[in-house]
Structure formats: structure tokens, C-alpha cells
Amino acid sequence: MRSEFETELNNLHIRFSEMAMMVNEAIKKAVTAFITHDQDLAQQVVVDDQKINNREMDLEKKSFEMIALQQPVTSDLRMIMTVLKASSDLERIGDHAVSIARADLRLHEKSTLPDVEKLIQQVSQQVEAMFTQAIESYLQEDDQRAIEIAQQDNDIDRLVQKIKHLCIMDMKNDAQIVENGTSYLSVTNYLERMGDYITNLCEWVVYLKRGKLADLNCRDDQQNRKY
Amino acid sequence: MRSEFETELNNLHIRFSEMAMMVNEAIKKAVTAFITHDQDLAQQVVVDDQKINNREMDLEKKSFEMIALQQPVTSDLRMIMTVLKASSDLERIGDHAVSIARADLRLHEKSTLPDVEKLIQQVSQQVEAMFTQAIESYLQEDDQRAIEIAQQDNDIDRLVQKIKHLCIMDMKNDAQIVENGTSYLSVTNYLERMGDYITNLCEWVVYLKRGKLADLNCRDDQQNRKY
């Protein structure tokens, strides 16, 4: 028979996974809204973010209670700590989805940049894929896979640089697209930052499994630490 | 006589405060480097960030150990939880100081925007002041003051909007400043985001004192929650 504590721990795990799904949905919707210029969908992302914020506070509250009342040790404590810290990363990814949605709402339909949009779609697909895989590695407690997934952030960063360069060139050539161009740049920056937070999620999978804190957030231009 | 646990808790508190001072230094240096176009100072911020990241990992490790081995309760546990969560916010503020420093390093001296620079200096002074006050409220465990400090984020957001508008107008009028203009916009965005993280720090001061999680991150256009 399951103890009450085991049931609570399992509930915490389920509620964290649900939060991850809510954030995944927010990313998809925000990017789709940006590409299809769907302002209603963008507005939905902004409104739904409150649910993500509430879930983070709910997970924090539950984690604190479990630590205070049950005084868990070793792997159980690690599980709670992972939820506690990784939920902040999820919440921030959700915040960035909202920032993308707000950029959608500011966009003027008349002067869009189709080539830049295509690349933004490409990088957002990379971000979505990395996010899904990071959550899978959490569910499977697969630390080795999490370390590999974190490397994808370098590909995202490279594509981001390419988009920024193209966008600035376009803006230099046509003053009419400067305003929209800054929105495209912002969205690109938010996607880049999401990649960093997903890397943090991968670090928490490593902690969950090994009980050791890892720094997987290495830039291409820095020496890579080996794991 | 102080127990070993009390000494450890006090050390944790001191090491967190030191981390706050390191981050404060990073903000000041990054903004000074941006305003004075001092590339050496900007480079220093990038290099010094590793110390901030190491300190965060060190605080996480120590917090986990203290919870696992000492099983603290009530206010002691709250103190450890605050350090654990607020250190992530500090680390992210440090990351944004690095992003400002990297924007400094990309800036071409020839086509700067003096008017925008003045406003950026003004908003950065607001961010620095808000940060210093938030840390003071933590040291004094003054939850009421923390709630008041969080309101300053609205002033920051308003000034940020003004800067963005001015910057885009300048970029539309002169293609030569488009590239630098995007750096100015990025720096403005980073300062805006710092304000959000400082608001989070204020929330942790409320938690430390009241044991309740607060959401102080209200936008002007949202209904304010009362505390």
C-alpha cells in the first residue's frame, strides 16, 4: 500500500508535468500566432499565463509544506527540490511565450518580413522540440539524454545570430519595416532565452538523477565542461 | 552559545548578501560601460559572471545539505527556501548585466544616440536604486517596504516604453543607426527584465516574513492585488 507521502510526491510530479504541458501549449500558440498573425490566439496566450503562474505558486507552496511536515531525505528530497527549482524555469519560459504574444499584438500587418518569419518558424520548431525532449528526459529521469539535449542550445544560438543579422540588414534597407523589425528581433531574443531556460531544465534532470548540480549552459565560445 | 546550525544559517545569509553585492556591482559596471563606451569594463562584467554563477550553485548545494541533514522547520526553513529561490533571481539579474555588457561590446562608436543614452542612464539608475532597496528590505526583513519597492517597477516600465518609442523613431529616420539602435533596444529590454526580477526578490522578502507567497509583479494594465 502506498503511504500518504508517496501519494503526495506522485501528485507533485503529476502537477509539475501538467505545468510543463501548459507551457508547451503556450510556446506553440505564441509562435503560431506570430507566424499566422492571429491576434486572438496571441491574446489567449496572455490570458492563459495566469494559470501557469498560479501553478508555479501552487507547486512552491506544496513543496514547502512537504519539506516542513514530512522532512524527506535523499531521492525524495531531490525530487521536491527539482520541482521547486525547475518550476521557476517553466514559469519563465511561459513569460517569454507571453512576450512573444505581446510582440504579435504590436505587429503591423502591412510591413512583414516573410524571409525572417520563415527562419523564426524554424528556430521556434527547434525550441519546441528541445523543450519536449527535455520534459521527456525528466519523466524518464534520463540524465545522459538531458546532457545531450542541452547541446541543442548551441544550434539555436547559431540560427538566432543568423536571424538577427538578416533582420538588421532588412531594417537598414527599408525604414518602413524598422518598427516591425524590432518586434521580430524581440521574438528572436525570447526564443534564444527560452533555449537557455530549457538548458536549465536539463540541469535539473541531472541533479534529480545524480544529486549533483551541473552547469550545462556553455556558449560555443566558452570551453565546454565534460560530463 | 550558538549552535552549529545557527552558525551555518548565518553563513548562508552572509554568502547570499555577498552574492547580492556582486550582482549590484555587475549592474553598475555594465551600465557604466554602456554609457562611457568602456569595452574593458564590459569585458570585466562578462568574466566576473562566472563568480556569480558559482556562488548560486554553492548556495543551492549548501541549502540542499542543510535541509537534508538538519531538517529545519518554520522560520529557519523559510530562510533557507528564500535563499534557494531568490539566488536564482540574483543569478538572472547577473545574466542580464552580462547581456548589457555584450551589447556594449557590439556597439559601433560612430553612430551613437546621445538622447537615448541619457534615458537609458536614467532608467538604469532607477533599476540600481530599486535593487539596492530590495536587498535592504531583505536584510531588514521588512515585508511592507518590499511591497512598496515592488511598485517602482511600474515607473521603470513607463520609462522603458518611452525609450523604445524614441529609439524606433531615430532608427526610422536614419538607416546608419539601425544596428546600434537594436543594441540600445536590447539594453532597454534587459533593464526592464531586471525590474521584474527585483520584483521577485521583493516577493521573497514577503515570503520570508509572512510565510506566504505573494505575486507583486502587477502590470499597470492589470488589476492590482492588495496586500
TrEMBL record, chains A, B:
Protein name: Phosphate-specific transport system accessory protein PhoU
Every PhoU domain range: 17-102, 120-205
Tagged with keyword Nucleotidyltransferase: no
Known role: Plays a role in the regulation of phosphate uptake.
Keyword annotations from UniProtKB, A to Z: Cytoplasm, Phosphate transport, Transport
A GO term from the CC aspect: cytoplasm
An annotated GO BP: negative regulation of phosphate metabolic process
Taxonomic superkingdom: Bacteria
SUPFAM superfamilies: PhoU-like
Keyword Nucleotide-binding listed: no
